[in-house]
Amino acid sequence: MKVFLNHLNSINAYFQFTMETESEGHLPFLDNLYLNARSHHHPSSKQSALSTLLHRATALCDQDSLHAELEFLKDYFKRNGYNDRQIHRVLNLHPNYNQHDDRRDTVAFLNFVGTVFNRISRVLSLHNI
Questions:
Q1: pLDDT for 39 beyond 50
Q2: What's the Cα-to-Cα distance from 40 to each of 30, 77, 99, rounded to whole Å?
Q3: CA 3, CA 7: separation in Å to the nearest integer?
């Protein structure tokens, strides 16, 4: 891998690649760089990032280390400004990809404008939109 990395970096001095490798039994991932709850990302984007980390943990951890990883994630989410309700929501998601009963009949696309978006979304969801 190092030879390939050196080859890529020799092509253009202004365009350089880096490589992360396993360290102390852990693999580094980039998606945790923007997880702060106070960031200006759409709430569904932040929720999706949390869900991705949870899914990765359940997919990659064996049963012996899963509990410790989930505790680590809870602590990590808290340190990044997420409240208990947000953490509880992501930890209790159990998606079943084979069921489509809860699909909405109509879809509405709204621009995100803070609390206005949330209020309109709640009203639309009451009407299965």
A1: yes
A2: 18, 16, 32
A3: 6
According to DSSP H, which parts of 12-107 are helical?
Answer: 43-60, 63-79, 84-91
Pair 49, 106 in one domain: no
Tell whether 59 and 12 lie within a shared domain.
yes
| Average pLDDT of the residues of the chain | 77
Q: Residue type for 92, please?
A: N
Number of domains forming the structure of the chain? 2
Q: What pLDDT sits at residue 44?
A: 84
Structural domain including 6 reads 2-95
| Residues, the chain | 129
Q: How far apart are CA 109 and CA 27, in angstroms?
A: 37
| Domain shared by 72 and 110, yes or no | no
The answer on 105 and 84 residing in a single domain is no
61-117 pLDDT tens trace: 888 888 898 898 899 889 889 999 888 888 886 443 333 344 455 666 666 667 777
